[in-house]
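A reminder from the course coordinator: this example appears on the midterm review sheet, so study it carefully.

Given structure:
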């Protein structure tokens, strides 16, 4: 593959995926904005307490989608179409089991989970409502993620992007209609979020009706291709860890600043989801190219795609941080409909400290995705676990004790820096490059 052709393909996949993932992140950001306007600080606190459960559901969808689609690309690169097709149906089999478990939790465990998250007073009722509806919509969230990943890796990145954007735009529209004209409050916000993946799946179905799909009819089964889900574990770890970190941060902030502190953290946390979606777009856009190159034994193509991804992540990190630093007051003000001085001050300081992690976080996401794309699950999981909770949770406990709220904000950049050092050490050991750039070539001769 010529360098120019590779760069153009990389640019197309990454640009489309960043746009799509930004749209997808608007699920929660739109809720944050409309809840802050229509329900106030209590609604914002309830939303932030409940969002970690969405991270669990979303993480399962990403694990099955990215893991299965990665193996699908590898099989297709090797010309093994039958095994590639079985990957899709194996992931749907796992999805059915996870969806049933989440729905059962929504029906019977929403109240205990809300209490476990330390929701109280008026915040408790809203937290319970959000949890229950999110869990009942879990089949749609999981299935949508799987279809997005497989359709993208099956040669239709534009359709995947269109589905993500359409779902997000619908979410914003429903947020407005259900919260304001219909006065449904937090219930309206979570229903709008649940409707979005349903619309996305409707658009993705065009991949099959257009005749462009290489995925054929099959049946749900527990075939050996179920193991492909392991390649998506870094994505699950990232999402689950994000949820766990939010829970820990919420508990620490409740002790330091109460519900108003949790509401302020909600602003920062939801903006971080948007930034994370940019990195996810780079990683997911690079993955089909790296996995195909890995399957074909094309070492130089894999190296170039990794380098393009790292440079893109670093460049975007610098630009986004400048925006947050210069316009922190105005950005926080958008979500501070009650004009709370405490919320404004806490969130502004948080934006400027928390997001110094961005360059390191971007590099870590790209590295983890690279390791997964070339079937090196161990280093991928090590990077994801370390940045997800093995380092950040102890760091948050330690720094919050020493520095209060500033310590909570700084725990993220300190963690991402340490993990990036570890990730680069994995990368420069040579064993991963040698397996990709020599071992794969031997297999294809």
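Designed residues:
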């Amino acid at each position: 593959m010529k360098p120019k052709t590779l760069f153009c393909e990389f640019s197309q996949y990454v640009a489309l995926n960043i746009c799509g993932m930004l749209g997808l992140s608007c699920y929660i950001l739109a809720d944050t904005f409309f809840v802050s306007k229509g329900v106030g600080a209590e609604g914002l606190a309830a939303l932030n307490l409940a969002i970690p459960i969405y991270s669990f559901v979303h993480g399962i969808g990403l694990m099955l989608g990215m893991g299965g689609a990665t193996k699908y690309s590898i099989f297709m690169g090797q010309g093994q179409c039958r095994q590639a097709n079985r990957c899709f149906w194996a992931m749907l089999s796992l999805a059915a089991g996870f969806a049933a478990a989440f729905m059962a939790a929504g029906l019977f465990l929403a109240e205990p989970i809300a209490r476990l998250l330390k929701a109280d007073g008026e915040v408790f009722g809203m937290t319970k409502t959000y949890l229950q509806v999110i869990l009942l919509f879990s089949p749609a969230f999981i299935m949508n993620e799987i279809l997005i990943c497989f359709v993208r890796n099956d040669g239709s990145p534009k359709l995947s992007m269109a589905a993500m954007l359409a779902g997000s735009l619908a979410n914003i529209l429903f947020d407005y209609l259900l919260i304001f004209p219909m006065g449904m409050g937090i219930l309206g916000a979570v229903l709008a979020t649940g409707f979005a993946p349903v619309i996305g799946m409707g658009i993705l179905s065009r991949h099959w009706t257009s005749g462009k799909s290489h995925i054929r009819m099959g049946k749900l089964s527990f075939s050996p291709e179920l193991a492909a889900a392991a390649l998506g574990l870094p994505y699950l770890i990232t999402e689950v860890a994000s949820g766990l970190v939010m829970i820990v941060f919420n508990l620490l902030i409740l002790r330091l600043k109460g519900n108003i502190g949790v509401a302020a953290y909600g602003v920062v946390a939801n903006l971080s989801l948007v930034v994370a979606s940019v990195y996810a777009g780079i990683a997911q856009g690079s993955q089909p190219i790296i996995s195909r190159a890995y399957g074909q034994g094309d070492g130089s193509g894999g190296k170039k795609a990794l380098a393009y991804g790292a440079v893109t992540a670093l460049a975007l990190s610098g630009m986004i941080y400048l925006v947050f630093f210069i316009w922190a007051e105005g950005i926080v003000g958008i979500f501070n409909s009650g004009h709370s001085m405490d919320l404004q001050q806490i969130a502004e300081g948080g934006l400027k400290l928390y997001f110094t992690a961005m360059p390191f976080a971007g590099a870590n996401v790209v590295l983890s995705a690279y390791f997964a794309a070339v079937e090196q699950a161990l280093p991928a999981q090590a990077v994801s676990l370390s940045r997800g909770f093995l380092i950040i949770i102890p760091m948050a406990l330690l720094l919050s004790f020493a520095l209060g709220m500033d310590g909570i904000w700084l725990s993220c950049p300190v963690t991402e820096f340490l993990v990036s050092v570890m990730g680069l050490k994995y990368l420069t050991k040579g064993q991963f490059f040698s397996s990709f750039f020599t071992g794969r070539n031997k297999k294809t001769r």
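The chain has one domain: 3-440. Confidence is low (pLDDT under 50) at residues 431-445.
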